[in-house]
Amino acid sequence: MPDTRTHRGSAPGDAQLFGPAQITLLRSAVEDYSLLLTRGYAEKSALKLVGDRFELTHRQRLAVMRSSCSDEQLQSRNARRLKLKSIRKSSLAIDGYNLLITIEAAISGAFIFVGRDGCVRDIAGIHGTYRKVEETTPALKLIIEFVNSLNPSEVVWLLDKPVSNSGKLKTLIEELSDNADFSVSLSNNPDAELITTSAIVASADGVVLDNCARWVNLAVQIIADKIPSARIIDLSQT
After folding, report:
1. I need a surface site. Which of 105, 177, 228, 235 has the fewest CB within 10 A?
2. Which residues contact 77 (CB under 8 A, 6 or more apart)?
């Protein structure tokens, strides 16, 4: 069945799944799931245990999973997190789809979740194919403008080459950037490059954050400064 979406992230029923009456329950689920991770439980079995206990839907489980981490992960991520001012005159590597889809979702009015590590995450998915939506160009313009204001020495976007339409997105980013120090790379394994790069990394992907040398929480500041209408749910509080 062809993908006919024109907006990013939202789904019928989300207003009820993530409404005020559900927030306390979801925060408790994040707390319990994070505790199980801290105690060494496997992610899949721990999520099932917590999801079944709180009778969570698939999308609620996604939000809980993406908002949680173990105490060890939290401490490690915080230790390597830099302030945005560190980007000035430094090289920046952007986890392209990770950042773009979150900003698209925020612009579209989809729910955005603050996790234990302070990162904001969406529950959208591209499942091997990226489809441009109405929010794509506005989101890219926001990101490019914001990143340029931080005055990095160079910026490299990393996009998953195996994802369909990555080439078209690369061309669009290059057209909008109009900056010689702003480049886009199609990579077979962006996570591996982000983990090993000496550049400052902009990502909210847990695997990347757990293994990269240093990172910045770029999405949260873009949303705070540029998207006041964003529907943000803080699941880090209990």
Report:
1. 228
2. 69, 117, 209, 210, 215
Residue 47 in this model has a pLDDT that exceeds 50:
yes
Contact 124, 107 (CB under 8 A): no
Distance CA 6, CA 135 (A): 8
Quick check: 108 and 81 in contact, CB under 8 A? no
The CA-based diameter of the chain, rounded to the nearest angstrom, is: 53
8 Å CB contact between 126 and 9 = no
pLDDT band at 2, cuts 50/70/90? very low
Asked if pLDDT for residue 180 goes beyond 80, the answer is no
| Residue in the structure block whose two tokens are 């005020």 | 20
2-to-5, 101, 131 alpha-carbon distances in Å: 9, 19, 11
Q: Which two tokens stand for residue 150?
A: 């931080």
CA–CA distance, 87 with 69 (Å, rounded to integer): 26
Q: Quick check: 130 pLDDT over 70? A: yes
C-alpha distances in angstroms, 43 versus 51, 62, 117, 122?
A: 12, 12, 17, 19
> Rounded to an integer, what distance in angstroms lies between the CA atom of residue 169 and that of residue 147?
18
Q: b/e map of 126-156 (b: 16 or more CB within 10 Å)?
A: beeebeebebbeebbebbbebbeebebeebb
**HSE (CB half, 13 Å, CA atoms) of 214?**
11
pLDDT of residue 238: 65
What is the reported pLDDT for 179? 78
- Average pLDDT of the chain, as a whole number: 94
